[in-house]
Amino acid sequence: MNTTILRKSVLGIAGLAFAGGLAAGPLHHTTTDTGTGEARPVAAVQADKTDKTAGVDAGKLIPHGVQGAQSRIDLDPEQTANVKAIIAATKKAGLDERAAVISIGTALQESKLENLGHLGDRNDHDSLGLFQQRPSSGWGSPEQITDPEYATTAFLKGLRQVDGWQNMALTDAAQTVQVSAYPDAYAQWEQQAADLVTQHWNS
Questions:
Q1: pLDDT tens digits for 116-146?
Q2: Residue 15: pLDDT above 50?
Q3: Distance between the two ends of the chain, CA-based, in angstroms?
Q4: What separation in angstroms does the CA of 53 have from each of 43, 57, 80, 172, 202?
């Protein structure tokens, strides 16, 4: 077991109640986890036309506004690298910023953007990776679905099959692909996902 997986089991996997489907259970909707137990307000990152966020279409990121209270976590370098991998895979698939927001928001709920391996009793069956995809459900081999590019591409393939996903609330689009036991849990991550796309889309 590598150090990443050990850290996962210590840092909050117990707080993810895996049950049915592919998704992790709901996290707290009214507080922000900063790793210190302190809550801090969620604020959108505004695009500055003089920096690398120029060219991001803010109107596409959250077309109908966020739904409900928003959660936010601080990201370490590994999680940030996973954000960049999701964005790169989204671009490679020829999809836009909205697809990246949905993908990142989904991964925030499923794994907190951590590429999870097998967690023993804490696994939802054989769920793995950023999106907690299951080899037994046809998502791919364990090696494939723990590759961020492959996992994102597989998620996006499912998303493309959802009619009207571009104009859906994040939680509805994500749930249609993921079939979670907690269908509303994705909504809490929409603002942070949009902020991360704004920050990293052109980086």
A1: 875 555 555 678 999 999 888 889 899 999 9
A2: no
A3: 32
A4: 16, 9, 16, 27, 6
User: Can you give the pLDDT at residue 123?
Assistant: 52
**Residues in contact with 46: Cβ distance below 8 Å, sequence separation at least 6, in sequence order:** none
> Is 55's pLDDT higher than 70?
no
Distances in Å between the alpha carbon of 195 and those of 61, 70, 101, 191, 198? 9, 12, 9, 6, 5
- 89-117 pLDDT, tens digit per residue, is 999 999 999 999 999 999 999 999 999 87
